[in-house]
Design goal:
Blueprint (H helix, E strand, L loop, with lengths): L8 H11 L4 H37 L6 E2 L12 E10 L5 E5 L3 E5 L4 E9 L5 E10 L7 E6 L5 E3 L4 E10 L14 E10 L21
Parallel strand pairs: 1-7, 2-10
Antiparallel strand pairs: 2-4, 3-5, 5-9, 6-8, 6-10, 7-9
């Protein structure tokens, strides 16, 4: 009598693994789906982190981020003076010359001051940039209040154009109540212009707000 074919234990075990809901190809699809979901979650979190970080810096002055004010301080200037230095930088890829008209001024805390930076597009084509900024020491960002600044908007420059860009600011008088800053004598305001790859289409000419108005 002929014997019926037999299946070894190893072959039987392999066959059982392949029958399960997550065996073979099905298991590979499940693993790929999980990995794809994790990657999508990480990418989404990274995009969400950028605006959250910017909001946090503006709200707290963290990392030297300055604040935005809409008017002069209600209490007015105080007798204490402080020196404000101005720093300017241009990132690679933007053919601009960028410098402050004054490297340093002395102001009363609470005094509203207007200073100007000069920007020249040294390229033979229209270029656009936007400035990032901070102050040093980093702990005084929450006290440095800007009323108007070219850094709030994207700047588009015609070939060879030179423009004067104002910054209107004050140092909040409440800094005098922060005893950690009792020995503070100098604040440095630093800007770096970065190229804008896809600028918003708008008139090249400077707006009325960019013209000299003197100290407010």
């Amino acid at each position: 009598m002929d014997r019926e074919p037999t299946i070894s234990r190893d072959q039987s075990r392999t066959a059982k693994k392949g029958r399960g809901p997550f065996g073979g190809l099905g298991r590979d699809v499940l693993v790929a789906s999980i990995c794809g979901g994790v990657v999508a979650l990480m990418v989404g979190a990274s995009y969400a982190a950028v605006p959250f970080y910017n909001w946090f810096c503006r709200a707290t002055g963290f990392n030297g981020t300055t604040q935005v004010a809409i008017s002069a301080p209600a209490s007015g200037p105080i007798a204490r003076k402080i020196a404000v230095r101005f720093d300017s930088n241009v990132a690679p890829g933007l053919p601009w010359k960028f410098e402050p008209e004054q490297s340093e001024i002395e102001v009363n805390i609470g005094q509203v001051v207007t200073v100007f930076y000069t920007v020249t597009n040294q390229a033979a084509r229209t270029t656009a940039g936007q400035a990032a900024y901070n102050v040093a020491p980093l702990t005084v960002g929450s006290y440095f209040q800007k009323i108007n600044c070219f850094c709030f908007t994207e700047q588009t420059m015609a070939p060879g154009e030179t423009r004067e860009m104002p910054v209107v600011f004050y140092v909040d008088p409440s800094i005098a109540d922060d005893h950690e800053n009792d020995g503070l004598n100098t604040i440095t305001l630093s800007y770096t212009f970065y190229p804008v790859r896809d600028p918003v289409v708008k008139p090249v000419a400077a707006s009325e707000d960019d013209k000299r108005k003197g100290n407010l």
